[in-house]
Amino acid sequence: MKHAVTYELIKECKKTKARRGVLHTPHGDIQTPVFMPVGTQATVKAMRPEQVREMGAEIILSNTYHLYLRPGHELIREAGGLHKFMNWDRAILTDSGGFQVFSLGKLRKITEEGVRFQSHIDGSTHMLTPEKAVEIQNALGSDIMMAFDECAPYPADYKYVQNSMRRTTRWLERCKAAHRDIERQSLFGIMQGGTYKDLRKESADAIVEMDLPGYAVGGLSVGEPKELMIEVLDYCVDFLPKEKARYLMGVGSPDYLFEAVEHGIDMCDCVLPTRIARHGLAMTSHGRVNIKNSMYEKDFTTLDPECDCYTCRNYSKAYLRHLFKAEEMLSAMLLSNHNLHFLIHLMGEIRKAIEEDRFPEYKKEFYDKYGRF
């Protein structure tokens, strides 16, 4: 039986592990490496779907936990699925909700069955199991659905991470058994194991044996030093098959995207570009701009002269600063538009650099302009 989602490797970088590919999905092809905007609650914050589509996004991410609690997966099923519900005709990946549940701290209890938790909305009690996570994502109708896993915190001792990782593997087996419509949706597994190389290898061996269309590296970018993240990522990728898609969860700053690509990752996502936009921060070709600064009060130049996004074509730093200081919602809309366009364009340039065998040189050029991270 053919999987709904397949990965096609097109070119590999000669000097690094960076690679260029295409992810084939029921809702269109995705050029990789790719940054996926996050639409947690069936919307990319401060953006219309048409705007996200126009800037070149081919896939977005939504979240099982949030959509289960509100408005409910059965309502979305009744609406015809998440694509129709939110008017998005391209690919969707849904996170299983594991990270959100485990972030609840004292509001949740982990057992072999799953996780019992209290809603952050109204305090009601719920049970999320691997089977329930699959049921919810089946109702949402995403192209790629993620297995239910436990994201161990950093730091955590070896025994805790070992037990957590092995439970995650058992949960993946249950997710795979619960998911049967592989021609409509694809299930990706998640490698865990913290910063312990032997546990990462054990996790990878177990999930790769299940022969899924793609695999994520989970449990990174959760507070560990950047150097350690890169070290762990480097060997994690070596444990995964070349012919399958590789996804690094939760990274979205330009430097982390470059490192992910350099170490062989195909897919990344993060709330960062829209989150910092709501706080008046913009990513530009010459580094971050804090639009709150008084130096921009009479600066009538564009946010980034090298950017052709809607915001940069039409508005000045002075106007953006005014909007933010006046607490106008247009501030978040325009800065979100710019930040998402910036990262999507950046990934396009990275793909081009890989195709032309100049990825290391392009990375250096970018860092030289962007400055210190």
Shape: globular
Structural category is alpha/beta
Q: For the largest sheet, list the strands in their spatial order.
A: 4-14-13-12-11-10-6-5
The overall pLDDT average reads 96
* Rg from alpha-carbon coordinates: 20 Å
Q: How much helical structure, as a percent, in the residues?
A: 40-55%
> What's the main sheet like?
8 strands, parallel
Query: Could you tell me how far the N terminus lies from the C terminus, measured between alpha carbons in angstroms?
Result: 46 Å
Low-confidence stretches: none
Please count the helical segments.
15
DSSP strand (E) fraction?
A: 15-25%
Count of strand segments: 16
Helices, strands, pairings?
Blueprint: E1 6-12, E2 19-25, E3 28-32, E4 34-37, H1 49-54, E5 59-63, H2 64-69, H3 73-78, H4 82-86, E6 91-95, H5 98-102, E7 108-110, E8 115-118, E9 125-128, H6 130-140, E10 144-146, H7 158-178, E11 186-191, H8 197-208, E12 214-217, H9 226-238, E13 245-248, H10 254-262, E14 267-270, H11 272-277, E15 281-284, E16 287-290, H12 310-314, H13 317-325, H14 329-355, H15 359-370
Helix pairs in contact: 6-7, 7-8, 10-14, 13-14, 14-15
What does this 3D model show about the protein?
The protein is an alpha/beta fold. Helix content is 41%, strand content 20%. The chain has 15 helices and 16 strands. Strands 4-14-13-12-11-10-6-5 form an eight-stranded parallel β-sheet. Strands 1-2-3 form a three-stranded antiparallel β-sheet. Helix 6 crosses helix 7 (158-178), helix 10 runs parallel beside helix 14 (329-355) and helix 13 packs across helix 14. The termini are far apart.
